[in-house]
Here is the input.
Amino acid sequence: MVNELEKQAGLLAASIDDIGIYKTIEEADAIADSLGEAANSRVTFILNNGKVVGDSNLDINQIRAVDNHIDRAEVSEALKNGSGWVSRYSDTLKQDLLYFAVKDGNLSNPNIIRISVPLNYLESAAATLQVSVILLFVVVFMPSRSVYRKVYTRNS
Here is the structure.
């Protein structure tokens, strides 16, 4: 799932050259809202000073009231190394989330684009994968076992 978020974050970063070009929170948030809907994930725009200027899951008043994000692990890691991720409880949304953050395209003074999904999304994806593996086992193993019995019985 982290790899998938990394791919999505990379696509978002490729489409947003510089978060700093948006003149208002309303303008930045409108873009974050559109991208969040397209990615089916939470998208957050964070300036390199930690100020949140857009979030697909928050309205304008909530964005203005949100804490500075400069000390968030994924944000500081992305500013330092280009990307970072963490899973933790979101006090804002009151749920566990998996976060992945990347620098935007501003090479001289980069900002952060962060994408996140609820951990219960991961649990349901894992459960779906587990059911798929079981069905694959039944579909592949059971017929091959029947063929083995026929071949073994004929050769005995």
DSSP finds five helices and five strands in the chain. The chain has one domain: 2-119. Residues 125-145 have pLDDT under 50 and may be disordered. The helical segments are 2-15, 25-39, 60-65, 73-81, 119-155.
